[in-house]
Amino acid sequence: MKEFAASNPDETLLDVLENANDVITVRDAETGETLAVSGGVEEMFGYTPEEFTARSIEEYSADAEAFDREEIETRFEEARREGEATFEWKVKARDGTEFWTEVNLSRTEIGGRDCLLSVVRDIDDRKEKESELERYKRLVSLVSDPVFTIDEDDRIDFVNDAAVSLSGYSREELRGADPSRIVESEEDEDEFEKIHRLADAPDDSVRLEGTVQRPDGSTRTIEANIAPLPTENGEFSGAVGVARDITARKEREEHLKRFASVLSHDLRNPLNAAQAQATLLREAEGVESDYLDTLDRLHERMADIVDDVLTLAREGTTVEDPEPVELRRAVEKAWESTPSDEGTVVVADELGTVRGDPRRVRRLFENLLDNAVTHAGPDVTVRVEPLPDGFAVTDDGPGIPPEERDSVFEYGYSTAERGTGFGLNIVAEIAKAHGWSVSLGDADAEGTRFEVTGVSR
Predict the structure, then answer these.
(1) What fold does the segment set 2-125 form as a domain?
(2) What pLDDT is recorded for position 391?
């Protein structure tokens, strides 16, 4: 304003006032008299410049009783003294609409007259976003899982209370810190490179696992899902992550591995020796007895139980590196190992591909198909068809009695004489490890239908 005031101030001032989108007022610096108001006042306040000039500040201030004129006078005095001042002001339009504005005051000379120039800008959208941001911050601070963000320089710039508690560091120590100094990643690849690549795929996220080294020397194992922050230009501008303390889960998995080792060595070896002794009695000693036949069956059942428990110990862990699995191929391979020469499996053409562990997906189908053969007979017909978020396996057997439907996935459930009671529980554990759900569906007339849902494709 000072620059144009030195040359033809009247024309320049008029041009600015008429074309500015914000509301601009010019007041005498000493008396406060309003000298001019821009045309934008009609769109913002609903008053013509003449009507606006004739009204007192209280009339277009929101909640006039709470309006602090003294505060505004202080700001005006600051502008007179310092040359500029800024404040936020809630105003009221002619129709009663209330909204927030930002007022920028500056002292200048126009046409040789000492003036205060005020620029009033509607910031209601900004205030709403700030309020929404505060709500989000409050919500995030109350989330029980650790939440954090990293900036474009791969430094921590926000942590909620749960993240502070998990790490053992103060909020001040975490802000600006290099995450790799706090969390030791188990990834072979640079985790930041994986995160940066998400800028090209903003709907994706990466899962990282690592160990938090706490100041007191203790450690916690965490799992974090990290997604990029929104950006307009496609360049990496930071990321947000939600972590989870999986220390207890990891300890359980280690216990299961040790348990599986004990089963493999301490149970299978004596069992193999017992089976060998029974074979020697038959072949070397020429013993033939119904008791030996019974002993063979018991040995086989024990071997089946050991195999199933070992499978549970392995399959109960989370699938960490899923890959594309063609379901038709998995079903065909599973059917090849099913003891049925007369049965039929019908696979829908549109079954598609899912993301998972190929070996475990095949084992899931093996157990479902074996369950069908065991309960429906060797000439069973099994259909495998797609669901909107998964697939279904249906047989034409006798079905499951209503009173037993709630128990089919529990340990030990079996209606077959030779069943171990682990087969369907293994199916449930494999589904859970993938993040899927398995349930009993409604078969048409007879038979059993298993539905696997929540499947990632």
Answers:
(1) Beta-Lactamase (3.30.450)
(2) 95
Written out in words, the top-level CATH class of the domain with range 323-453 is alpha beta
102, 112 in Cβ contact below 8 A? no
CATH of range 250-315; options 2.60.40, 1.10.150, 1.10.287, 3.40.50: 1.10.287
End-to-end CA distance of the chain: 62
Nearest to 21 by CA among 124, 154, 119: 119
Report how far residue 443's alpha carbon sits from residue 113's, in angstroms, rounded to the nearest whole number: 90
The reported pLDDT for the residue numbered 248 is 86
Q: pTM of this prediction?
A: 0.46
d(CA 188, CA 192): 12
Tokens found for residue 284? 């070397």
| Structural element, H or E, at residue 100 | strand 98-110
Instruction: Quote the CA–CA distance of 238 and 43 in Å, as a whole number.
Output: 38
The arithmetic mean of pLDDT across residues 370-386, rounded, is 88
Mark out the alpha helices in 143-179 (DSSP H runs).
Answer: 161-167, 171-174
Assess whether pLDDT exceeds 50 at residue 7.
no
CA distance 427 to 367: 7
Alpha-carbon gap, residue 100 to 88, rounded angstroms:
7
Q: Which of 7-16, 76-85, 87-96 has the weakest average pLDDT?
A: 7-16
Statement: residue 20 has pLDDT above 80: no
* Per-residue pLDDT tens over the stretch 135-146: 766 666 666 788
The span from the CA of 185 to the CA of 128, in Å, is: 39
The answer on pLDDT for 17 being more than 60 is no
State in words which class domain 143-245 has.
Answer: alpha beta
- The C-alpha R_g of the chain, in whole angstroms, comes to 37
